[in-house]
Design goal:
Elements: E1 3-7, H1 11-22, E2 28-32, H2 48-52, H3 63-68, E3 71-74, E4 81-83, E5 88-91, E6 94-97, E7 100-103, E8 107-109, H4 126-135, E9 141-145, H5 149-160, E10 164-169, H6 181-193, E11 197-200, E12 204-208, E13 211-214, E14 219-221, E15 224-227, E16 231-233, H7 236-240, E17 249-250, E18 262-264, E19 269-272, E20 279-280, H8 285-301, E21 312-317, E22 320-326, E23 333-336, E24 342-346, E25 349-356, H9 359-370, H10 376-381
Parallel strand pairs: 1-2, 1-7, 2-3, 7-18, 9-10, 9-15, 10-11, 17-19
Antiparallel strand pairs: 4-5, 5-6, 8-16, 12-13, 13-14, 19-20, 21-22, 22-25, 23-24, 24-25
């Protein structure tokens, strides 16, 4: 194998290129990104960057790194199609030949079909964050559509800067896809104590020049409206090339698509959950990084080892760091410890651990979940003390 092409120059795509070199791959690596900037971190866009505006801190590697590692980086390039028969990637009239192709195309913001949605701003790219940072330089009323990680992180920053903030979440609780009802309730109380007005279970039916209108007819005034209502995977290239897609690019336990010469990773990939075998797509930097390591090891060392990394997530909201080890479903049972840690259980087995400002327990949980697992009875026997196990 001499030529590897990576579509997507986000943190995952870059990590794949880095790990290929670390594993000893000496062939050609081509990294193609749609944005004009050098690869950068996205998580700080909704937090630190809005306050300090230092784009240089976001940069993952300087330009000299790509020269030194002999990685050919193409920025501002949109890939049009994949020619699987001839193993070519086409961007306009330019083609890139590959022996193996890695899809790290990520996601884009959902734009729901509601009247006036064009008035709402996004927070997905550095360009989006630059626009919002300028808006926040003067006092304004901000309305956030969506009570997930990004929406709440932005809300916390806006409140810390003295702005009036309203959050409208269509679901009956905050972060409902990611955390337990108990953790949702704690963060609801936290944000309301900060002065943020939160509306739950009341979808947005229109966006206007003056703000938003909810399904019950109530209007929320806003000088700026941020849309943070979820994302959708970028699967169009894969689908047009005849790869299997289903809420993402479908891969097997080795992160291979139905074409053995193409892998997919990160936010765009649907893979078997190592704990349950069920298909899952994770929208987090850590999963993309772990995918990159697994793919590089397989390609260079021909190590056909299934991907088994424990997923973990985090969100910084005001002075709280939420950390989640493992992956739970809304149906999982919860046990709340005295320190506020939430243990989630699926069919009596530990599925996830949610903590606030408790890195020690978070790390212990990741170790436990990476092993053979633990039952509710085993934890109850040690008073839910993960460290004891």
């Amino acid at each position: 194998m001499d030529r590897i092409v990576i579509i997507g120059a986000g943190q995952g795509g870059l990590q794949a290129a880095i790990n290929l070199r670390m594993e000893g791959f000496a062939g050609s690596i081509v990294l193609i990104g749609a944005e004009e900037q050098l690869p950068y971190q996205r998580p700080p866009l909704s937090k630190a960057y809005l306050k300090d505006g230092d784009a240089l801190k976001l940069q993952l590697r300087p330009a000299t790194f790509f020269e030194r590692k002999d990685i050919t980086l193409h920025t501002g390039v949109h890939v049009d199609r994949i020619d699987r028969a001839n193993r070519l990637v086409w961007a306009g009239k330019t083609s890139f030949a590959y022996d193996h192709l890695i899809l790290a195309t990520g996601t884009r913001n959902l734009r729901p079909a509601i009247p006036g949605i064009h008035h709402a701003l996004d927070l997905r790219t550095l360009t989006d964050a630059q626009v919002l940072r300028e808006v926040l330089k003067t006092p304004c009323r901000t309305v956030v559509i969506g009570g997930g990680f990004i929406g709440l992180e932005f809300a916390a920053v806006a409140r810390s800067l003295g702005h009036d903030v309203c959050v409208a979440e269509a679901a009956p609780r905050l972060m409902s896809r990611a955390v337990s009802p108990e953790m949702s309730e704690r963060f609801l109380k936290k944000h309301r104590e900060m002065g943020t007005i939160i509306h739950l279970g009341n979808p947005v039916c229109s966006v206007t020049d003056e703000g938003i209108v909810l399904a019950d007819g109530s209007a929320l005034a806003g000088d700026v409206v941020l849309l943070a209502a979820g994302v959708t995977p970028n699967i169009e290239l894969a689908a047009a090339a005849g790869l299997q897609v289903d809420n993402g690019v479908v891969v097997n336990e080795y992160l291979l698509t139905n074409d053995d010469s193409i892998s997919a990773m990160g936010d765009c990939a649907v893979f078997p959950n190592p704990a349950t075998g069920l298909p899952v797509r994770l929208e987090c930097v850590q999963a993309a990084t772990d995918h990159a390591k697994s793919i590089a090891s397989r390609l260079v060392g021909n190590n056909m080892i299934p991907y088994t990394a424990v997923p973990w997530f985090w969100s910084d909201q005001a002075d709280w760091k939420l950390q989640i080890a493992g992956l739970s479903s809304p149906k999982d049972d919860s046990v709340v410890r005295e320190d506020g840690t939430v243990l989630r259980f699926a069919d009596g087995n530990l599925s996830a651990v949610e903590t606030i400002n408790n890195a020690r327990t978070h790390l212990q949980a990741r170790k436990i979940l990476a092993g053979d697992g633990v039952t509710r009875e085993e934890l109850a026997a040690v008073n839910d003390d993960i460290a004891a196990l």
